[in-house]
Amino acid sequence: MRGRYKPYPEYRDSDTDLIVVIPKHWRTTKFRYLFRMVKGLTITKANLEEEGVPCVNYGEVHSKYGFRVNPEIHPLKCVDKQYLNSSPSALLERGDMVFADTSEDLDGAGNFTQSVGNQTLFAGYHTIIAKPYPTNSSDFLAYAIDSTEFRTQVRLAVKGVKVYSITQAILRNTDLWLPPFAEQSQIADFLDYETAKIDLLIEKQSVLIDLLKEKRQAVISHAVTKGLNPDAPMKDSGLEWLGEVPEHWRLKATKRLFTLVAESAPANNNYELLSIYTAIGVRPRRDLEAKGNKATTTDGYWVVRKGDLIVNKLLAWMGAIGVSEFDGVTSPAYDILRQRIPLVPQFYDYLFRCGICLPEFRRWSRGIMDMRLRLYFEELGRLVMPYPSEAEQSEIVTYLKNKLRRFDTLIVDARRAIDLLKERRAALISAAVTGKIDVRDWKAPESDSTETDE
Known about the structure:
The chain is α+β, with helices and mostly antiparallel strands. The chain has three domains: 1-13 and 186-227 and 391-454; 27-178, DNA methylase specificity domains (Adenine-n6-DNA-methyltransferase TaqI, Chain A, domain 2), CATH 3.90.220; 232-387, Alpha-Beta Complex (Adenine-n6-DNA-methyltransferase TaqI, Chain A, domain 2). The protein is 32% helix and 21% strand. The chain contains eleven helices and 28 strands. The two termini are 31 Å apart.
């Protein structure tokens, strides 16, 4: 970092544990001397509406808008206007910080967003509001709070196992490092400029990933419904969702392809426990047990044989279907489909998870709302699917494995680039707000002064 930016000429002891030295003219202070703290609205999701006064809740803090929120450009749920009279203390002013008071993982401890819009905005449920006193730059303070050094203090102080609680007391006791006001503004301007460039690169990589995923899905859908021969004569399948298929392909109901099996695992077994995930298919639970609950016993679970298809009835319409490459057991909440005629299970793994099939699965799922929809074999079994010869299924599977390897490599490279950019962003923020680099002489290039946001 110092290769591009010079350090300050003189440093002194910071009197804190996480930073050894700070610039000589900076001071160290506690969070409690810089902010007035209040709680967000005492409401639940049931109080959120489509119209009214915009409200930022802990969910938006954690995953939606990140570092800054602006109701003028970010769509937010609302609360009734009555809260303007009953709870004015939960209203946000420009520059206020909103912390999520709980987190499901330690990395999320200390997540916050800064209010930067001019529209009336509430802080909602599970939030803590930190209102900066006007003696400091709120933008500088936001960057300081976003720094690794500040976040580390919070993470060391929180307590929890599955849920980590962030209290006002924890925040009040954290340390911050302050230059004079004018220097704070200069650092904030510098970081606005530099992080905007990094954020643009991150956005471009994210767009690339989305495009690659779309292309990947299109390749799968075409191969499993149209085949690999572009000159093959086609016929109407008679199914609106499927359209034309190669003339020589047969069509069969899923129940003619697979049978539903329910083989209970014996007591005191040591079979591999398997789970099905929408993004990655079937995996041993031990590989991902940090992300899920551990089963204390697998007695009574369903036995899975290599080549079986596992269907998560609750999330099938989102792609939670996959062929198992393992022998093992899985939850009785899942359906196990075992081939009843010659076929290649991996072909139907691709077919069932492709963009063409999923809307049809959703249509035939039962339930009153999206997160309660279930696709039972009674409906899945009636759905008619293409049935190429076993040899052609195998050929298509081999083609897709080779073709998709390139897409997967490009997606991994793009994600790695995003991770590196995020690391650079975090390092730059930390260096600037803790005084490792001196940006007092920095000026935005004149060529950028005429640019406008698209």
